[in-house]
Amino acid sequence: MILNKDKALKIADFLLQIKAVKLQPSEPFTWASGWKSPIYCDNRKTLSYPKIRTAIRQTFAEQIESKYTNIDVIVGVATGGIAIGALVAEEMGLPFIYVRSAAKGHGLGNQVEGAYSEGQRAVVIEDLISTGGSSLKAVEALREAKINVLGLAAIFTYGFNQAVENFENANCEFFTLSDYDHLIEQAESTNYISESDVASLQEWKVSPENWKQ
User: Fold this and answer.
1) Which of 14, 42, 157, 205 is deepest in the core (most CB within 10 A)?
2) Confidence (pTM)
3) Spacing of C-alpha 155 from chain mean position
4) Contacts of 124 by beta carbon, 8 Å cutoff, 6+ apart
């Protein structure tokens, strides 16, 4: 879900400018799943650009505050959501914790790291949503720790139906600052891609496992 179209286009433009997102329909990438993909996304690059990371953290804070009240803590998902989550927490003047992909194998064996209390109201921060699997594992870990997850916010999503279904099944609402549709719209309007590329890029979103260039 996108909360603000103008902001979604602006964030998409930032991601394209710094090549945090690359679109190559004629020279597709191969994902770990084996899927051929015309897009590659690495939102960690946003941290290297002060103006852009500031815009992202401020947009997160604005949109979180417009959607939720009485937030106790901001949570980052390891690893991509840790740095941006900490920046958002700083912007909002809130405590910050993070969730590991699995419980630590030594010491205290924590999966949720930082100071928190049962019943606290949390918003989770991610850098990217594909199918939603890793994000929802983090949500599950927080719920097991008896933290009240209000929702999850991410910089970007590919917009797969599978992700929407997974979040619905987990009873966890989410929104993103930008998404694949706004990215394609921005890329086309700035001549980053040609008009002939758009159909192929849209076909990939509908059926990424079967897409052929």
Assistant:
1) 157
2) 0.94
3) 4
4) 75, 76, 77, 81, 85, 99, 135, 138, 139, 142, 149, 151, 152, 153
198, 178 in Cβ contact below 8 A? no
Return d(Cα 89, Cα 57) in angstroms, integer.
9
Q: CA–CA distance from 33 to each of 11, 80, 132 (Å)?
A: 27, 19, 14
Instruction: Please give the chain's pLDDT, 213 residues, in tens.
Output: 899 999 999 999 999 999 999 999 989 999 888 888 999 999 999 999 999 999 999 999 999 999 999 999 999 999 999 999 999 999 999 999 999 988 765 665 689 999 999 999 999 999 999 999 999 999 999 999 999 999 999 999 999 999 999 999 999 999 999 999 999 999 999 999 998 899 999 999 988 888 876
Task: Say if domain 5-206 classifies as CATH 3.40.50.2020.
Answer: yes
Q: Is 69 helix (H, G, I), strand (E, B) or coil?
A: coil
